[in-house]
């Protein structure tokens, strides 16, 4: 299939860029419509809240007919008039519920965090719905749990045992019955006291001794899930003896897409579309190098004062000058590659320092 695709979701630049490299024209419906996304899209429709997403997707497909729709975060279960390219909405809905995901892992007999009841502490508290992990928190008392729950009123949540270790994930390609692990990733979290468990980037491949076992488990999970195309499995890898602990399943393209492509040389949109036609990679791709990406967040309210396009390709998700970003909001993504993980991270630190010289004067 060649032609035009629509990419919809909260942040879609990485998916749209992969589709363009795969040879497609793209139309996007996105929360940010950053400079580098607008530069590669035929049309870019911006939404404020996810409630607007379905209407804008319909509007976008009326403006420019498309051959199919690729779903990012927030768009997994959208009703579509155009062809859906990926996991069916009923399957996706199951894994957008963390309680249902936990039950799925338990049904497969996989190692997963034990559920806790109120009064059992410490506990990892998670809203049942939502992605990115930014609302997750460890609570150690009834008072802490009540204070955390008050931040997200009327939202059901799950309590799990706290699992120490290295946050990691596996990027898989699935055909609804089978799956192939494309890459293992170490996840970078935000850290700090607020939103500390939020996703902030990745390093691909993951060098942990249990990375291979994690990939094996991920293929089993993704194959049994019924998902089609790109699917990611999040894990915690214990620092000592043990086994990978399955945490969540993402029935869509993941934020790790860029480091996976940069490390393996594979195009995930192409692999995703082939999986939609029932074709999977013949084998797991080998990593050619290490790739790292980190999202930088605002440490205060700020207004973008410069066009950071001059720093590309070391930066991506480039906001327009004049954009107001509240404290804690994402500012820009920073990228680097290297022959080793430490070299990629060193390059990342160098690029981050360059970006921060701009951020400090805004």
Task: Provide structural commentary.
By secondary structure, the chain is an alpha+beta fold. Among the domains are: 4-85, Rossmann fold (3-Layer(aba) Sandwich); 123-161, no CATH class; 290-359, no CATH class. Helix content is 28%, strand content 27%. It is built from 10 helices and 17 strands. The protein has an 8-stranded antiparallel β-sheet. The protein has a 4-stranded parallel β-sheet with strand order 3-2-1-4, with helices on both faces. Helix 2 (35-38) links the parallel strand 2 and strand 3. The mean pLDDT is 96.
Produce a short descriptive summary.
Helix content is 28%, strand content 27%.
Task: Write out key terms for the chains shown.
362 residues; alpha+beta; Rossmann fold; eight-stranded antiparallel β-sheet; four-stranded parallel β-sheet; 10 helices; 17 strands; 28% helix
CATH class (first level) name of the domain at 4-85: Alpha Beta
Helical content stands at: 25-40%
The end-to-end distance, rounded to whole angstroms, is: 45 Å
Unreliable spans: none
- In the sheet with the most strands, the strands line up as 12-11-8-9-10-13-17-15
Record field, number of beta strands: 17
| Total number of helices | 10
Architecture of the domain at 4-85, according to CATH? 3-Layer(aba) Sandwich
């Amino acid at each position: 299939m060649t032609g035009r695709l629509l990419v919809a979701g909260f942040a879609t630049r990485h998916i749209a860029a992969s589709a363009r490299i795969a040879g497609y024209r793209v139309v996007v419906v996105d929360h940010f419509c950053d400079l580098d996304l607008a530069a590669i899209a035929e049309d870019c429709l911006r939404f404020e809240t996810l409630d607007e997403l379905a209407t804008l997707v319909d509007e976008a497909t009326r403006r420019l007919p498309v051959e199919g729709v690729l779903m990012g975060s927030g768009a997994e279960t959208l009703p579509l008039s155009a062809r859906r390219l990926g996991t069916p909405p009923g399957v996706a809905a199951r894994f957008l519920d963390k309680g249902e995901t936990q039950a799925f892992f338990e049904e497969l007999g996989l190692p997963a965090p034990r559920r806790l009841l109120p009064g059992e502490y410490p506990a990892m508290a998670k809203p049942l719905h939502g992605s990115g992990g930014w609302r997750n928190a460890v609570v150690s008392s009834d008072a802490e749990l009540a204070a955390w729950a008050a931040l997200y009123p009327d939202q059901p949540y799950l309590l799990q045992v706290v699992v120490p270790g290295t946050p990691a994930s596996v990027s898989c390609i699935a055909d609804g019955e089978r799956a192939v692990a494309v890459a293992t990733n170490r996840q970078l979290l935000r850290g700090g006291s607020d939103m500390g468990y939020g996703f902030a980037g990745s390093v691909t491949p993951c060098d942990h001794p249990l990375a291979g076992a994690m990939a094996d488990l991920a293929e089993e999970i993704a194959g049994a899930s019924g998902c089609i195309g790109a699917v990611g499995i999040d894990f915690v890898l214990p620092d000592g003896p043990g086994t990978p602990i399955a945490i969540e399943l993402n029935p869509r393209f993941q934020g790790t897409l860029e480091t996976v492509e940069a490390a393996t040389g594979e195009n995930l949109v192409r692999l995703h579309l082939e999986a939609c036609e029932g074709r999977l990679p013949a084998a797991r791709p080998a990593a050619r190098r290490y790739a790292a990406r980190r999202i930088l967040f605002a440490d205060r309210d700020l207004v973008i004062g410069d066009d950071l396009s001059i720093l590309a390709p070391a930066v991506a998700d480039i906001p327009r000058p004049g954009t107001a970003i509240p404290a804690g909001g994402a500012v820009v993504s920073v990228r680097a590659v290297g022959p080793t993980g430490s070299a990629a991270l060193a390059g990342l630190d160098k690029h981050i320092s360059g970006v921060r010289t701009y951020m400090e004067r805004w």
